[in-house]
Amino acid sequence: MPWWRLGRRRQPVVENTSGRAVVHHIIRGRRFLANVPYVLPKDLQEVSRLDFQHYMLRYALRTNYVAPLEHPQAILDVACGTGRWAKEMAQTFPAANVIGLDITPHATDEQQAAQPSNYLFVQGNVLEGLSFADATFDYTHMRLMMAALPLDRWQFVVNEMVRVTRPGGWIELVEGDLLYGVGPAFDQLNQWGIELCKKRGIDLTIGPRVVNFLHETGLEPVYSHRVLIPTGKHGGRLAMMAETDYMAIFASVRGFLVSLGLTTEAEFDRLYQQAQREMHEGQTPWPFYVCYAQRR
Ligand SMILES: C[S@@+](CC[C@H](N)C(=O)[O-])C[C@H]1O[C@@H](n2cnc3c(N)ncnc32)[C@H](O)[C@@H]1O
Q: Using one digit for the tens of pLDDT, what is the confidence trace for 177-228?
């Protein structure tokens, strides 16, 4: 059995979406990918969460990109998720061709229909490399792969991003960190998430260190920013969004954690309620990291 298959053996469901085979498992009502290490669900509920998270990050950063782009002609979004970011970039840069790459196509018909004409989805597994020629893109972007890339594959993926970027073009990575010290229940939920990821070789705490993978490519200088998103009842609208998003991430892996025997439904639900209160009453900022470098 491949190393990323976990827990009890389940019959995978093979579905055909846009002519491509998608293998997934249903675990307690949520749909998970079966053929990659990625631990978050891949279903309509997750589409909503990812879009919501995109709006939260755009609101927090006040932009969709930080690298000093001028007139990009070709943009790649690695692991584009719902494609929301990539489609907005296609609108921002109408002269650019924007490609969103992901292991599975977008989840809804609505998403496929509402595509700018300069946006294209390409299916691909980034762990097998990027199926583009060297120096194809002016800007290569990847966001929130902390729950998808095994620690020992990060450097390979970042090297691939550099390879497909043109000299003078930019590579940008955006990752989040965990929220530490919010309270005992919150810490326990984080810990289960860390353990779940560890079983697939994923280091869920990698966010603050992804900048090192850019340094390792030899590109200089590497620019890096930390963005703190407020949390807690006094943090305003952004904090409310952060609370909704973080708690939804916990909820999305509830069944997975239970199926692995890391917790029970009753224990999870009790700690979940407590963790929500801890986050609401606290004010620990949620760090995100944006780093970018120019290809020479
Ligand atoms: C947390 S989502 C982030 C999506 C998007 N980058 C965003 O910021 O909204 C992670 C995405 O990575 C994709 N993914 C996971 N493993 C992958 C792989 N090996 N190759 C390509 N995409 C992958 C998932 O399908 C999912 O869409």
A: 999 999 999 999 999 999 999 999 999 999 999 999 999 999 999 999 999 9
Within 10 angstroms of residue 3's Cβ, the number of other Cβ atoms is 10
CB 270 within 8 A of CB 218: no
Locate the ligand 1 atom nearest the alpha carbon of residue 174 and give its number: 8
CB of 185 closer than 6 angstroms to any ligand 1 atom: no
Cα–ligand 1 centroid distance for 234 (angstroms): 32
Q: Whole-angstrom Cα distance, residue 144 to residue 51?
A: 13
Give, using CA atoms, the residue closest to atom 27 of ligand 1: 81
149 lines ligand 1 (CB under 6 A): no
**Residue 8 CB-half CA count within 13 A:** 11
CA distances (Å), origin 130, targets 34, 93, 164, 208, 232: 20, 23, 8, 24, 40
Residue 90, in any domain of the structure: yes
CA atoms within 13 A on the CB side of 266: 0
Q: For residue range 251-266, list pLDDT tens digits in order.
A: 999 999 999 999 999 9
In a domain, 2, yes or no: no
Domain tally for the chain?
A: 1
CATH code of the domain covering residue 122: 3.40.50.150
